[in-house]
Amino acid sequence: MNSRISYFSLFISSVLAFIVSSCANIGRPGGGPIDLTPPVLLKSTPEQGTTFFKKKKIELEFDEIIQVEKPGEKITVSPPQTNPPEIYTAGKKIIVELKDSLRNNTTYTVDFSDAIVDNNEKNPFPNFALSFSTGGSIDSMEVGGVLLNAEDLEPVTGMYVGLQPDLADSAFRKKPFVKITRSDASGNFTLKNVAAGKYRIYALKDANRDYKFDQPGEDIAFLDSVIVPSYKLVEKTDTIWKDKLKHKMDTIRTVKAKQYLPNNLLLRAFNENFKSQYLDKTERKERNHLLITFAAPAKELPRLRPLNFPAKNWARLERSATNDTLNFWIKDSTIYKSDTLRLEATYLHTDSLRRLVPQTDTLTFTFHDLKLAPAKKPKKKDENAKVEKPALQVESKFGGSMDLYGLMDFSLPVPFDSIDEKKFHFEEKKDSLWHAIKTPPFEYDSLNIRRFNLKYKWAPGQEYRLKVDSAAIYGMNGLCNKPFEKSFKVKNVEDYSGFFINVAGINDSAFVELLNESDKMVRREPVIKGVAEFFYVNPGTYYARLILDKNKNGKWDTGNFGQKLQPEQVYYHPGKFQLRTNWDVEEQGWNPLALPLDKQKPRKLVKNKPKEKVKRDPITGKVIPSTPVKENTEEDQQSPVTE
After folding, report:
1. What is the pLDDT of residue 386?
2. 491: confidence class by pLDDT, cuts 50, 70, 90
3. Per CATH, is 279-366 categorized as 2.40.160?
4. What number is the average pLDDT over the span 103-107?
5. Which of 41, 159, 378, 467 would give a disulfide with 485, using CB separation of 3.0 to 4.6 Å?
């Protein structure tokens, strides 16, 4: 009897263990087909398009257990909420609890984007938005377009796009949007359930989540024109399926549908590059060197007044082009031997109202020599041994091979005190012998007083040598250089490619930038009489970008909302250029206006690409490899322009 009970207990325990194990595993049974279908919405409270809805709790029920991915980033409630809603899941349900009071006679939209996925395979329930109204009607207009980075035409993801019915410029800074959405992975956006009327449209990277442009460092975009939502009836085909699984159609009919306008708005996002001006840092890492840095560029230098040392010619100034980095080099040893130096500095400072106002500070620079451990007893000196004197370190990056347009560039650790140009000897190699030639002219940098260069019109394929005598260069530290020499060979014309691009339809001042495969600028040339000419380009793969340089300063400039100034226009050539040695490439008749801006940038250069959908085998669940991109054939490579 006991034996029977024991076997029966073991059997029951095994069955229970199997049941518990089965219940714990909510995934598909081993060997069964993988779930490739998205979850199905069974019902919602409120239902789509409900009117006179006053509750703050919204529920969605699906046919399977679901999850919500990144609700704070992907789910948008419009009109925007001052207090973020609480969003959570409970099995097959999603619950959204609004925290703000509901406005009267207002259409609300809860846009879930692609945040809803099933629990097992993460199949998305995409592009779903639930709308309801607290009044008797649903606003039904839509507005759409694309948001790009103004400087490089990258799609901008996750940035707020909003509508403002107050057409005054000040409304963008003082009033929150009435309708909002977020740009998707491709930069596209659609504002749904918009009421009829006139609006301004803006994009905003909202740092403090108040849905208005009140922080100067926020990224923005705006249109100069007012938009009026509308629609038109268009014909479209509607397919009635007899059996979708077997792809059997019953009938195809033509129906009338609403096409909402405008649906092709283009917003170009930028940052005004506003920076509060303040004293950022002071340093004295060397006795004879003081460093002062400011947080933003400045038009004027600060006024400095020494407080505990003589004020006349106390230092040489090395500064950045924007006056935000200042290096002071002190030559007088009676000044820099002092452990503490004090200066009175008067400079422009940004106040709480974002105005530049004068401010005066006392700056203290201290320097203390490190106390070293007592040295060991030195060995007896050799009276005949030569004492090695320290020398001025002169750095030069050229040598070996020189570009036809290259410079002989030199840099020093301290500002130079004097340079004896007669101690620079330049030679050219002819018939295996070196022959002296006139030394190239010296060019001195007015800002960086530790650099200089020699510029020369090199002969292609020729060899050159530079010899520099000792004591040719003296630094502020009293040290001079040792003798040195540099020899190099200039590249031949045949080592390069020439690239000439003809630009059509552009009448403004402009320049073309040659880009590498990382979208980085390699060369820049102006457009003169419709052509940008690039001589002596190193062989490789390149792309081209055009900038309309309206202020003719040779660089891209951002916009300014207060001045109603849009950022300078940028265009990309849609193809790529394969430049080979000893080969000139001419691109005829590029019209930058021929393609929409969001279709111009070559896909190779686009960094913000949407994730490609993974294809799986429905039985095994294994990922099906995507078709590899075909490489250029040898025949393709013969053409300078491969795309």
Report:
1. 62
2. very high
3. no
4. 96
5. 467
| Secondary structure E strands in 86-159 | 86-90, 93-97, 107-113, 116-118, 128-133, 141-149
Instruction: Report the alpha-carbon distance of residue 183 to residue 189 in Å, rounded.
Output: 5
This prediction's pTM: 0.82
Q: Which pair of tokens denotes residue 587?
A: 């691109």
- 147 token code pair: 């948001």
d(CA 218, CA 625) in angstroms, rounded, equals: 41
Domain with CATH 2.60.40.1120 in the chain: 140-271
Give the integer Cα–Cα distance in Å for 456 and 476: 28
CA distance 77 to 86: 11
**How many other β-carbons are positioned within 10 Å of the β-carbon of residue 463?**
16
* Residues 266 and 145: beta-carbon distance below 8 Å: yes
Residue burial 205-227, b: 16+ Cβ < 10 Å; e: rest = bbeeeebbbeeeebbbbbbeeeb
- CATH, domain range 492-643: 2.60.40.10
What is the spatial distance between Cα 464 and Cα 482, in angstroms, rounded to a whole number?
20
Q: Tell which residue, 123, 121, 110, has the closest CA to residue 84.
A: 110
Q: Where are the alpha helices (DSSP H) in 150-290?
A: 171-174
pLDDT at 370: 66
Which of the four CATH numbers 2.30.110.10, 3.40.50.720, 3.40.47.10, 2.60.40.3710 does domain 395-491 have? 2.60.40.3710
Provide the pLDDT for residue 237. Answer: 78
Mean pLDDT of 41-48: 96
> Nearest-CA neighbor of 394 among 414, 410, 417, 377?
410
What are phi and psi for residue 407, nearest 5 degrees?
Answer: -120, 150
Q: Closest by alpha carbon to 152, among 523, 611, 556?
A: 556
Tell me the CATH architecture of domain 140-271: Sandwich (2.60)
| Amino acid letter, 370 | L
CB atoms within 10 A of CB 462: 14
pLDDT given at position 637: 32
Give the Cα separation of 455 and 444 in Å (integer). 11
Q: 3-state DSSP call for residue 475?
A: strand
> Taking the alpha carbons of 188, 193, 194, 196 in that order, is the dihedral positive or negative?
positive
Inter-residue contact 97 to 47 (CB < 8 Å) = no
